[in-house]
Design a protein that fits this description.
The complex is a heterodimer.
Chain A (H helix, E strand, L loop, with lengths): L1 E8 L3 H12 L5 E4 L15 E3 L8 E2 H14 L3 E3 L3 E5 L4 E6 L3 E12 L3 E3 L15 E3 H9 L3 E2 L3 E5 L3 H12 L3 E6 L9 H8 L6 E2 L2 E7 L6 E6 L12 E4 L2 E4 L3 E3 L2 H5 L24 E3 L10 H19 L9 E5 L3 E5 L2 E2 L8 E7 L3 E10 L2 E11 L5 E5 L1 H6 L5 E7 L2
Parallel strand pairs in A: 1-2, 1-8, 2-5, 8-20, 10-18, 12-13, 12-18, 13-14, 21-28
Antiparallel strand pairs in A: 3-4, 6-7, 7-8, 9-19, 15-16, 16-17, 21-23, 22-24, 24-27, 25-26, 25-28
Chain B lengths: L1 E6 L3 H10 L6 E4 L16 E2 L10 H10 L2 H8 L3 E2 L3 E5 L5 H14 L5 E4 H7 L9 E5 L3 E3 L1 H14 L3 E3 L4 E7 L2 E6 L3 E9 L5 H8 L7 E10 L10 E4 L9 E4 L5 E4 L3 E2 L10 H12 L10 E11 L6 E5 L2 E8 L5 H20 L22 H10 L6 E3 L4 E2 H9 L7 H8 L12 H11 L19 E2 L5
Parallel strand pairs in B: 1-2, 1-12, 2-9, 5-14, 12-20
Antiparallel strand pairs in B: 3-8, 4-8, 5-7, 6-7, 10-11, 11-12, 13-16, 13-17, 13-18, 15-16, 19-20, 21-22
Classes of the chains: A alpha/beta, B alpha+beta.
The structure holds flavin-adenine dinucleotide (FAD) (2 copies).
């Protein structure tokens, strides 16, 4: 059995950022474990640009963004193992991993950062009826075929779901020579970033069919087409208005789920709202010394936010290893009216040096509404927003002054208000 | 020239093939699809029924309970997953308890041991997550669950090891009587055999009708299912049936041997024997009906749905035997439920007929044992370590949800009657059958198939035919 101060599970942007941050705080004995053959996570297949605008003020591609962090990992001589899958973890921070090179091995860590990313929801999650022919892929799988393998999964495409990956793939498939018939979205709004709707659909005249869904899948061997129908206000398909679109490929971009199998094994408490761990301000879970960041914690739209969060987790893990992190009286963070979820779930005011950001998503699109923060019953901030959409993660700032003013506060709640 | 040609590589054909491989016979299997178990055998409830359902004077009644007893030994010899989890038939109305008693008596006549009628308290103690509306249940401790395609593949590999020849992608189009037997014409070739066994599932009427004037007519009856994530796989432990009522037959809720939860099937007669689609109304129906049995339907955890087709005939029983107007032509037709449970005894019954016709010698060197693919996910760390030391490919995980290693995938391809398609890999290793439904491993498995079989990536299919996954290279059409 080997021993490490800090083991990071997952070498995507979250894992890499956390490793860099912990190393900058003087933690030396760090190991990153990654099951793919190289570091970088999902970024390796995101060859489009638009990464790093916030962090580096530059438009980078996914691999370029990852490369900046891989360089830092190399220059800080942080150790990592690729082609290595972590298969077990317990609450005592003992983990088991496997690889061709090392076989099965166990590591005792003093602290762990979970950075396993997320997975795409498959067809079954929607229970779409029809046949089980070939030609149905998640958008991320198609992205991997096209961007990593240089192979086309189909030529005549319908995309279900307007999440960012679906939008990006609409453009990619078009550029690679396929015809994209439509992007079909159940909700009356897109789950993706506005910039992606403009740059990936509008610029290529690809129709976005809001309040529609796929009702049937047709094809014996390979997909021959799909039926789509509009949905009513309860999201039930109006079958009288069903119509057939011939196509050879259906791409699904119907949501991402944090990949928390290992977290569960370690008894990490998960939130039903985010499907990720419940964490405090340092992204520490209910298990001492186990932290989480990136898409395994909650699904992010932008990698820049993943990196910011990974720094928080990396620094907090370093503090934990130095015995400087405290658990004290906690304040709950509550996703109140109009808010789907907020991260972190609770905060230990003693650990807050300066300011603190809360991330959240709204439940529905709202225009000209206010985002308010309450300390118990006192409204402390109140900002008007032109538009709030569930597709774009928002943040509010909590300052240390606010915390000291409301030093006996039990809960901070975020609300969307009309006025 | 063959002694016996078996048409169809489902559980019936494969059990028969294995049984006949114990004899000095030249046997071949003709199958229209690319792999074993691609008909009804891949899509059913996977229950090894205890055997109280069918009338004692029917073939179903006679074969089921007897075959049930053989599963412990068979699953050991052939290394497939089988678990005697027991079954419960739930009764929701005091007035219906007499029907439970009727089933119990019928079971006793069929030779089913240890049947018990339990009151509500006993049922709830056994299965706390059952609905409060249950008033009593028939408990059959010998009921079991099995992996039907793994079982068929195990039978097939063992038959192959003992000399049976296999011809896939050979669809039987015609059969002609000749002096020395039958000429079987497929879309690829012609095979001559003394004895022909028709185990063609929903198509067994068509095969029968090629040689006999005693026509059969199979009406495919669709049954739809939902499979749930392993996260809810232990919500219940026993197979839960509903007592048939005036309203219909009810649907079952069961764990699978792999640890998932399964619900279904409904029953709808259709006219297309190749129509394996699921329908919105069917899936709604099974979800609604299954909700009667359990406290809470974990609908959020559905990972897949599928359809199986029952080979329904007017006879309402298995049709097994030599056809009077075609000597040497043996029907194994209308094998609907409990065909899977009865397969070992169906095979013995057919073997007896063949032995009577051909009077073969028993083989001295028959090997009853088949070793399956070692499953990384089921091993201790010590076993994993020694396996990886022998073959490092077992240290590379390809399917994250089911923890399937590259070594298992390579073994699935290179063993006798190995996998040639994505679904073939899935059925042998479970790669792609977990919660992400192959989103993660599809690209890898496709690469492995392409390099190991030395075919282009665009030639790799999901399940043969035109079910290709990739259509070309980027920018070919730009
Ligand atoms: C398909 C897709 C397209 C995207 N496109 C954009 C975009 O255009 N612009 C943008 O700003 N953001 C985009 N994002 C979002 C952004 O890239 C992600 O939010 C970010 O990559 C998440 O980082 P992460 O490190 O949390 O997860 P990931 O990048 O997914 O990294 C997780 C890593 O953990 C590894 N891992 C998981 N489990 C184990 C284990 N048991 N053992 C060992 N290793 C393990 C995985 O192999 C993976 O490398 C996209 C996300 C996806 C999924
Ligand atoms: C909904 C449902 C639920 C069931 N549940 C259970 C259960 O829980 N327990 C149980 O015991 N039984 C159950 N059964 C029954 C069981 O699944 C079947 O009895 C069994 O699988 C039949 O196997 P088979 O080999 O006869 O047919 P199949 O598996 O259909 O095999 C027939 C084979 O013949 C091939 N074939 C057909 N035509 C030709 C041709 N012209 N040339 C070459 N090859 C051909 C097909 O491709 C196929 O591979 C269920 C059935 C259904 C439909």
């Amino acid at each position: 059995m080997q021993e490490f101060d800090l083991v990071i599970i997952g070498g995507g942007p979250a894992g890499l950022g956390a490793a860099v941050a912990a190393s900058e705080q003087g933690i030396k004995n760090i190991l990153i474990l990654e099951r793919e053959n190289k570091l970088g996570g999902i970024l390796n297949q995101c060859i489009h640009n638009g990464f790093g605008l916030q962090l580096f003020k530059e438009e980078l591609t996914g691999p370029e963004y990852a490369q900046r962090f891989i360089k830092m990992i190399e220059s800080k001589e942080i150790r990592y193992k690729t082609n290595t899958m972590v298969i077990d973890l317990n609450r005592d921070k003992l983990l088991t991993a496997v690889s061709k090179a090392d076989g099965i091995f166990t590591i005792q860590a003093k602290a762990i950062i979970l950075a396993m990313g997320c997975r795409e929801r498959p067809r079954g999650a929607l229970n779409i009826p029809g046949t089980r022919c070939s030609g149905i892929f998640t958008a991320g799988t198609a992205q991997k075929f096209v961007n990593i393998k240089g192979m086309m999964p189909g030529k005549n495409i319908v995309i279900l779901g307007s999440g960012d990956i679906g939008l990006i793939m609409a453009r990619r498939m078009t550029l690679e020579g396929a015809h994209v018939n439509a992007v079909v979205e159940l909700m009356p709004y897109s789950a993706g970033l506005t910039r992606n709707i403009v740059q990936c659909l509008d610029d290529y005249d690809i129709p976005l069919m809001l309040s529609h869904t796929v009702t049937n899948i047709v094809g014996k061997d390979r997909l021959e087409g799909v039926f789509i129908a509009p949905v009513d206000e309860n999201r039930k398909p109006i079958l009288e208005m069903e119509k057939f679109i011939p196509c050879d490929t259906l791409l699904l971009s119907v949501g991402l789920l944090p990949e928390n199998e290992l977290s569960k094994k370690a008894s990490v408490k998960l939130s039903p709202l985010t499907s990720g761990a419940e964490v405090d301000e340092g992204r520490e879970t209910n298990i001492d010394g186990i932290f989480a960041c990136g898409n395994v914690l909650h699904v992010h739209d932008l990698v820049d936010h993943v990196t910011e969060e990974s720094y928080i987790a990396g620094k907090a893990a370093a503090k934990f290893l130095k015995g400087l992190r405290k658990r004290s009286y906690v304040i709950d963070v509550i996703a109140s009216e109009g808010i789907r979820y907020a991260v972190p779930k609770y905060i230990n005011p003693v650990n807050i040096e300066k300011d603190l950001e809360l991330s959240f998503r709204v439940k529905d699109i709202c225009k000209d509404h206010y985002v308010s923060v309450y300390f118990d019953n006192a409204r402390v901030t109140h900002h008007k927003k032109k538009i709030l959409t569930p597709g774009e993660m928002q943040t509010v700032k909590i300052t240390s002054e606010m915390l000291s003013t409301h030093s006996h506060c039990r809960a901070i709640s975020i609300r969307v208000e009309k006025e | 020239m063959y002694d016996v040609a078996i048409i169809g590589a489902g559980i019936s054909g494969m059990s028969i093939a294995r049984e006949l491989s114990k004899y000095d016979l030249k046997v071949c299997v003709l199958e229209k699809e690319v792999d074993i178990a691609m008909g009804t055998t891949k899509a059913n409830s996977a229950i090894v029924h205890a055997g109280f359902d069918a009338k004692p004077d029917s073939l179903k009644g006679m074969l089921n309970a007897a075959a049930n007893r053989l599963f412990d030994q068979l699953s050991k010899e052939l290394d497939f997953h089988f678990r005697r989890n027991g079954s419960l038939v739930l009764c929701f109305d005091k007035k219906d308890i007499e029907h439970l008693e009727f089933l119990r008596q019928q079971g006793i006549q069929n030779g089913v041991p240890n049947l018990l009628i339990l009151d509500k308290a006993a049922v709830k103690e056994m299965e706390p997550n059952l609905s409060e509306d249950v008033v009593a249940a028939l408990y059959a401790p010998t009921g079991g669950i099995v992996c039907p395609y793994e079982m068929a593949i195990g039978m097939a590999e063992n038959a192959y090891e003992n000399g049976v020849e296999f011809y896939f992608e050979n669809k039987v189009l015609d059969i002609k009587k000749s002096d020395d037997g039958y000429r079987i014409i497929t879309d690829k070739n012609t095979y001559i055999s003394k004895v022909v066994i028709n185990a063609a599932g929903v198509h067994s009427d068509e095969i029968n009708n090629l040689v006999s004037s005693n026509k059969l007519n199979i009406i495919p009856r669709r049954g739809e299912y939902c499979v749930f994530d392993k996260e809810v796989g232990s919500y219940i432990d026993k197979t839960i049936f509903q007592l048939p009522t005036k309203l219909g037959k009810g649907v079952l809720v069961t764990p699978t041997v792999d640890g998932n939860l399964l619900i279904g099937p409904n029953a709808v007669d259709i006219d297309d024997k190749d129509d394996l689609s699921t329908t919105k109304s069917g899936l709604d129906e099974i979800l609604n009906k299954a909700s009667l049995s359990i406290k809470k339907m974990p609908s959020h955890a559905i990972i897949a749905s599928f359809t199986g087709l029952r080979a329904r005939t007017e006879a309402d029983d298995f049709i097994i035997g030599e056809v009077p107007d075609a000597k040497g032509f043996i029907n194994v037709a209308g094998i609907e439920s409990p065909g899977l449970s009865s397969a070992p005894c169906i095979a013995m019954m057919v073997k007896d007929i063949v032995v009577e016709i051909l009077a073969p010698q028993e083989k001295a060197n028959f090997n009853p044992v088949r070793k399956g693919i070692p499953h990384f996910s089921e091993m201790s760390n010590e076993d994993r370590q020694s396996l990886i030391a022998q073959n490092p490919a077992y240290g590379q995980i390809v399917c994250r949800c089911e923890t399937v290693s590259e070594g298992e995938i390579l073994s699935a391809i290179h063993r006798p009657l190995g996998a040639t398609t994505l679904d073939g890999i899935k059925r042998r290793t479970r790669a792609g059958s977990g919660r992400c439904q192959s989103g993660f491993c599809m690209t890898r498995v496709l690469d492995i198939l392409s390099s190991e079989l030395e075919i282009k990536r665009t030639e790799v299919t999901k399940f043969g035919g035109e079910s290709r996954l990739l259509v070309g290279k980027n920018k070919e059409d730009v």
